[in-house]
Specification:
Helices cover 51% and strands 17% of the residues. With 183 residues, the chain is an alpha+beta fold. Strand 4 and strand 5 form a beta hairpin.
Length: 183
Protein backbone atom coordinates (compact mmCIF):
# COMPACT_ATOMS: atom_id res chain seq x y z
CA UNK A 1 0.00 0.00 0.00
CA UNK A 2 1.14 3.27 -0.16
CA UNK A 3 3.24 4.94 2.35
CA UNK A 4 2.52 8.51 2.84
CA UNK A 5 5.47 10.65 2.02
CA UNK A 6 6.79 12.11 5.05
CA UNK A 7 8.67 15.29 5.13
CA UNK A 8 11.17 16.03 7.69
CA UNK A 9 10.74 19.16 9.62
CA UNK A 10 13.40 21.75 8.92
CA UNK A 11 15.13 23.47 11.72
CA UNK A 12 15.95 26.68 9.81
CA UNK A 13 14.31 29.66 11.37
CA UNK A 14 12.68 32.34 9.16
CA UNK A 15 14.99 35.16 8.07
CA UNK A 16 15.46 37.79 10.73
CA UNK A 17 14.58 41.40 9.95
CA UNK A 18 17.45 43.68 9.08
CA UNK A 19 18.92 45.20 12.15
CA UNK A 20 17.86 48.79 12.76
CA UNK A 21 20.67 51.25 12.34
CA UNK A 22 22.26 52.24 15.50
CA UNK A 23 21.00 55.55 16.86
CA UNK A 24 24.54 56.84 16.92
CA UNK A 25 24.87 56.42 13.12
CA UNK A 26 21.59 58.13 12.10
CA UNK A 27 21.92 61.16 14.30
CA UNK A 28 24.89 62.67 12.43
CA UNK A 29 23.23 62.07 9.05
CA UNK A 30 19.98 63.66 10.20
CA UNK A 31 21.85 66.59 11.72
CA UNK A 32 23.74 67.11 8.45
CA UNK A 33 20.51 66.94 6.44
CA UNK A 34 18.77 69.33 8.81
CA UNK A 35 21.67 71.76 8.64
CA UNK A 36 21.71 71.55 4.83
CA UNK A 37 17.94 72.13 4.69
CA UNK A 38 18.23 75.14 7.02
CA UNK A 39 21.04 76.54 4.87
CA UNK A 40 18.98 76.08 1.71
CA UNK A 41 15.94 77.70 3.35
CA UNK A 42 18.06 80.68 4.45
CA UNK A 43 19.45 81.05 0.92
CA UNK A 44 15.93 80.88 -0.56
CA UNK A 45 14.67 83.49 1.90
CA UNK A 46 17.60 85.74 1.06
CA UNK A 47 16.83 85.43 -2.69
CA UNK A 48 13.17 86.16 -1.95
CA UNK A 49 13.90 89.32 0.05
CA UNK A 50 16.31 90.54 -2.63
CA UNK A 51 13.69 89.91 -5.33
CA UNK A 52 11.06 91.84 -3.34
CA UNK A 53 13.50 94.72 -2.84
CA UNK A 54 14.40 94.71 -6.55
CA UNK A 55 10.72 94.78 -7.48
CA UNK A 56 10.07 97.69 -5.14
CA UNK A 57 13.08 99.60 -6.54
CA UNK A 58 11.84 98.92 -10.09
CA UNK A 59 8.36 100.21 -9.19
CA UNK A 60 9.79 103.41 -7.67
CA UNK A 61 12.14 103.97 -10.62
CA UNK A 62 9.30 103.45 -13.09
CA UNK A 63 7.10 105.97 -11.28
CA UNK A 64 9.97 108.49 -11.18
CA UNK A 65 10.69 108.03 -14.92
CA UNK A 66 6.99 108.33 -15.76
CA UNK A 67 6.78 111.60 -13.83
CA UNK A 68 9.91 112.93 -15.60
CA UNK A 69 8.39 112.02 -18.97
CA UNK A 70 5.19 113.85 -18.07
CA UNK A 71 7.07 116.94 -16.92
CA UNK A 72 9.48 117.18 -19.85
CA UNK A 73 7.54 115.59 -22.73
CA UNK A 74 6.93 118.95 -24.40
CA UNK A 75 10.50 120.22 -24.12
CA UNK A 76 11.33 119.38 -27.77
CA UNK A 77 8.25 121.17 -29.04
CA UNK A 78 8.79 124.18 -26.83
CA UNK A 79 12.41 124.51 -27.93
CA UNK A 80 11.11 124.76 -31.50
CA UNK A 81 8.39 127.28 -30.54
CA UNK A 82 10.74 129.72 -28.78
CA UNK A 83 12.09 131.21 -32.07
CA UNK A 84 8.49 131.82 -33.14
CA UNK A 85 7.87 133.74 -29.94
CA UNK A 86 11.01 135.75 -30.68
CA UNK A 87 9.73 136.53 -34.19
CA UNK A 88 6.33 137.60 -32.85
CA UNK A 89 8.04 139.92 -30.37
CA UNK A 90 10.18 141.41 -33.15
CA UNK A 91 7.09 141.77 -35.37
CA UNK A 92 5.18 143.55 -32.64
CA UNK A 93 8.08 145.94 -32.04
CA UNK A 94 8.31 146.63 -35.78
CA UNK A 95 4.52 147.10 -36.04
CA UNK A 96 4.68 149.85 -33.43
CA UNK A 97 7.19 151.74 -35.62
CA UNK A 98 5.66 150.97 -39.04
CA UNK A 99 2.87 152.77 -40.77
CA UNK A 100 2.76 150.32 -43.71
CA UNK A 101 0.16 147.69 -42.85
CA UNK A 102 1.19 145.39 -45.72
CA UNK A 103 4.67 144.76 -44.27
CA UNK A 104 3.10 143.96 -40.89
CA UNK A 105 0.67 141.52 -42.49
CA UNK A 106 3.51 139.88 -44.41
CA UNK A 107 5.56 139.49 -41.22
CA UNK A 108 2.66 137.97 -39.30
CA UNK A 109 1.92 135.65 -42.24
CA UNK A 110 5.53 134.42 -42.29
CA UNK A 111 5.46 133.86 -38.54
CA UNK A 112 2.17 131.93 -38.84
CA UNK A 113 3.69 129.69 -41.54
CA UNK A 114 6.76 129.12 -39.36
CA UNK A 115 4.48 128.16 -36.47
CA UNK A 116 2.40 125.75 -38.60
CA UNK A 117 5.57 124.17 -40.00
CA UNK A 118 6.99 123.65 -36.51
CA UNK A 119 3.78 122.04 -35.25
CA UNK A 120 3.62 119.88 -38.36
CA UNK A 121 7.13 118.53 -37.66
CA UNK A 122 5.82 117.45 -34.26
CA UNK A 123 2.85 115.56 -35.73
CA UNK A 124 0.09 118.19 -35.75
CA UNK A 125 -1.86 118.27 -39.02
CA UNK A 126 -4.73 120.51 -40.08
CA UNK A 127 -8.08 119.03 -41.04
CA UNK A 128 -9.42 121.33 -43.76
CA UNK A 129 -12.30 119.49 -45.47
CA UNK A 130 -13.42 122.28 -47.83
CA UNK A 131 -15.28 120.67 -50.76
CA UNK A 132 -14.96 117.13 -49.36
CA UNK A 133 -17.73 114.76 -48.36
CA UNK A 134 -18.86 115.21 -44.75
CA UNK A 135 -17.19 112.67 -42.42
CA UNK A 136 -18.55 112.65 -38.86
CA UNK A 137 -15.30 111.05 -37.67
CA UNK A 138 -13.33 114.21 -38.52
CA UNK A 139 -15.95 116.93 -39.01
CA UNK A 140 -18.58 118.56 -36.84
CA UNK A 141 -21.62 119.82 -38.73
CA UNK A 142 -22.83 123.06 -37.23
CA UNK A 143 -25.37 123.82 -39.95
CA UNK A 144 -26.97 122.60 -43.19
CA UNK A 145 -27.40 125.00 -46.04
CA UNK A 146 -28.98 124.52 -49.47
CA UNK A 147 -26.57 124.87 -52.39
CA UNK A 148 -26.97 124.37 -56.11
CA UNK A 149 -23.17 124.36 -56.61
CA UNK A 150 -22.11 121.85 -53.94
CA UNK A 151 -23.39 118.26 -53.88
CA UNK A 152 -25.54 117.10 -50.99
CA UNK A 153 -23.61 116.04 -47.84
CA UNK A 154 -20.44 117.84 -48.99
CA UNK A 155 -18.76 120.61 -47.01
CA UNK A 156 -19.66 124.10 -48.23
CA UNK A 157 -17.64 126.10 -45.73
CA UNK A 158 -15.12 125.42 -42.99
CA UNK A 159 -15.90 127.60 -39.98
CA UNK A 160 -13.06 126.30 -37.79
CA UNK A 161 -10.18 124.03 -38.82
CA UNK A 162 -9.75 120.68 -37.12
CA UNK A 163 -6.46 119.11 -36.02
CA UNK A 164 -4.98 115.64 -35.69
CA UNK A 165 -1.89 114.67 -33.74
CA UNK A 166 -0.11 111.68 -35.26
CA UNK A 167 -3.36 110.55 -36.92
CA UNK A 168 -5.41 110.95 -33.74
CA UNK A 169 -8.18 113.53 -33.82
CA UNK A 170 -7.63 116.40 -31.38
CA UNK A 171 -10.40 118.67 -32.58
CA UNK A 172 -12.95 118.09 -35.36
CA UNK A 173 -13.35 120.70 -38.07
CA UNK A 174 -16.54 122.75 -37.66
CA UNK A 175 -18.27 122.84 -41.03
CA UNK A 176 -21.40 123.89 -42.87
CA UNK A 177 -22.76 121.03 -44.98
CA UNK A 178 -24.76 121.24 -48.20
CA UNK A 179 -28.32 119.96 -48.10
CA UNK A 180 -28.44 119.92 -51.91
CA UNK A 181 -30.31 122.28 -54.23
CA UNK A 182 -33.06 124.40 -52.69
CA UNK A 183 -36.51 122.88 -53.04
Amino acid sequence: MSDPIQTEPTDTPPPAPAPAPAPAETAPKQDEQLAAAKQEAAASYDRYTRAVADLENFRKRTLREKEELRLYALSGLLEDVIPILDNLGLGLAAAKQQTDVKSIVDGVSLTLEQFKSTLSRHGLKEVNPAGQRFDPNFHECISHQPSADVAEENVIQVVRLGYTLNSRLLRPASVIVSSGPAK
